[in-house]
Specification:
Oligomer: single chain
Order of helices and strands: HEEEEHEEHHHEEE
Number of helices: 5
Radius of gyration: 19 Å
Helix content: 25-40%
Shape: elongated
Number of strands: 9
Bound molecules: flavin mononucleotide
Length: about 200
């Protein structure tokens, strides 16, 4: 891989790699997102990328979850995609912001009804007394919204990672893998090759 193989705009380059991954991967949009406490204790989990444009990378979640609390107290995240089939990895780092409520609502209404009820039922990241508690909570939410639309909970929405840094990595059998870093500067993105 050379600089010329990647679009100078990292959002365009990521979008192209996601399209390539969609040809071979059952879930090309899965990314690991890392957050950390203000004191520097990290945690990471997989989420699904649901929006990508020049503003950043959007995923949806419970806004009272462990990750959301960390990303509120320390609004910085790192994300990683890995597509084994392509021998490619993309890393992203940046600030985090909540997406506009109207955008969360626009996505919410596209979710299957069962997923919307599950979002109401699950106090994500909190301890449960057992599986029954979750099933009871689901049944209660189902009854509550039986004849109604399932509204967007105020505790659910989108978070956007606003990238300051990207890195595109490709595997080489000789282990001299290719890494191209993008850094956001005052006049736009600049790129450099990194040692593997
Ligand atoms: C393939 C996959 C996709 C997932 N997508 C999401 C997602 O989009 N949003 C989400 O909140 N959790 C998603 N999860 C669950 C998270 O990994 C995690 O368990 C959950 O968000 C709670 O994390 P937290 O306690 O660190 O907040 C996904 C898990 C997997 C394995």
């Amino acid at each position: 891989m050379d600089l010329a193989d990647l679009d100078p705009d990292p959002f365009v380059a990521l979008s192209a790699w996601l399209s390539d991954a969609a040809e071979v991967s059952p879930q090309p949009h899965a990314m690991v997102v890392a957050s950390s406490t203000p004191g520097g204790r990290p945690s990471a989990r997989v989420v699904l990328l649901r929006g990508l444009d020049e503003r950043g990378l959007v995923f949806f979640t419970n806004l009272r979850s462990h990750k959301s609390l960390e990303l509120t107290e320390n609004a910085r995240a790192a994300a990683v995609f890995h597509w084994w089939e392509l021998g490619r990895q993309v890393r992203v780092e940046g600030a985090v912001e909540e997406v506009a409520r109207a955008d969360s609502r626009a996505y919410w209404v596209t979710r299957p009804r069962a997923s919307r009820i599950a979002a109401w039922a699950s106090p994500q990241s909190d301890p449960l007394s057992g599986r029954e508690e979750l099933e009871e909570r689901y049944a209660e939410a189902e009854e509550r919204f039986a004849d109604d639309e399932v509204p967007l909970p105020d505790f659910w929405g989108g978070l956007r990672i606003v990238p300051e840094l990207f890195e595109f990595w490709t595997h080489r059998d000789d282990r001299l893998h290719d890494r191209i870093g993008y850094v956001r500067g005052p006049t736009g993105w600049w790129r450099e090759r990194l040692a593997p």
